[in-house]
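Subject: sequence -> structure tokens, single chain

Hey, anyone have a minute? Need the predicted structure for the following. Not urgent.
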Amino acid sequence: MAKSQQEVAQDLRYARLGFPRGNPFRTLNADEEREDLGDLFVPIDHFDQIKENRSVIVFAPRGSGKSTLRVYLAEFQAPIQPRSGSFAIELTNFDAFLKKHTAGIPIRADDYVDEIIRLGLGSIFDLLFLHSPTRINLLSQPDHLLMGKLFANYSPELLGARKLMGAINQHFPSFVADWDEFYQAIEDCQVRRYLSRFSLPDESALASLATLIDRTARHPEPKPEALEGRIKEIAALLNALRYKNLVVLIDRIDEMHETANNYQLQVELLEPLIAHLPLMESGSVCFKCFIPQETRDILLSRQFYRRDRLPDLSVTVEWSDERLTQLFNRRIKVFGAFDDFGLYCVNREDAPRIFQEMLNVAEKSPRWLIIAGQMLIEETASRDGEPLIKWEDWEKAKGKVIQRLQDLTVGEVNRPPEKASQGMEPPAADDILVILKNKPVMKLRGQLINLTETEMKILNCVAGHKGSIHEDQLINLVWKAKSLYDAAGPAVIDSNLNRIRAKIDSVIGERGISKRQYLIKRAKHIELVKFKVVEDL
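Reply:
Had a minute. Here:
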């Protein structure tokens, strides 16, 4: 697709700045960077455990690169990779599961297994009949029969007229047929005879597909009752195609509006699969579940899950400043004309100061570091004058970063703050934190809780911003200071939040519950949930 004049002009500005391939921080979506991910990817701690041929639950805080891990594993274990010994299936759409849950229909492990097999068969079809047709020669006659059974049981549409026509056109674009006759040939299981009328070259993959359609029973033998048996069938077909491992990558459970902040719902949707230990520990398939860190405590509290097994199956993602520095430098190197960030700055001594501020804003989050870089490069490229980064560019970009972070939500979903609780079950009345407007008291479970003036201001400010506020805004409103450091040091907010949390915990009788369910700090955002504001009691 041709670029617009505006896009061309923007590319020229980036090139003038020293980035001929565009802004090195242009996207937050790992799926859009698949072709460059081999150069951009930074292996985090425990990555060797994550990529091992075993099932693992990967807990990760917001913005810590869950999808990047999933995309990297998928790309380098993709079926079309010539040296790949693994067959990766990506499960990233949970609409059907959410629909069942909303309708009150129980979700079962069968639903997950059948969906995984359907996704796998779609990839097998594309592999054999579109991308790598020579692989069809690896299959014996029994393998063909097994493939036909799987298609008929799980994805009969793959043996339909539209998919067959697409496969023919892939190899012979000029092929044209009467649609009614073509469709009838499929219905009568006479596809190979029908195609022989057109003098098509002897194409083994196409001939195999035609034979598969002709010979596949319209009423195949039933699926194995045991889920492990179903997985073993598709694993056997993959083994015949020279794939040793079947890897299922589960991600983006938190990227629907209904699930974004509802960790309980996320667990309920995944529970049927994660709780099925024989399947999770099956030798035929390994699952990689990338889910928010906030779900860990909920998983441990659920009766369905064996607490003693979770540590053996799980890894928690953490980013150090060293790893973030590697991420930043790799993007500069891949997209830029120079390896050294200082060469893009008017004053090279500004480079470490700017980068340190970016790390401070990011607060251990690669997503936030990318946003900071994106805004900085855009700010510098948009102005006239010398095409080098100035300290003033960062100061302007920093303000935009703060505003952007206020709007940022889980995953790639930009959701207005007032919808933060959409899809969550309404809390019980006693569990709602009642905040009195401009009065140093709050109420929970029928008990009045006294507050200091500062604590009162904090709660009123967060509540007044629809339950979500950036700490810089809070500092300005509560302490009338321009920055956290002007207010009395970086611990001023945390100390006040901790005092408020301790008061909530004492009423509920459970230490730490307020930090998870009422007053939450995510990087530099303070969030208040399960609350209401009243004028008087």
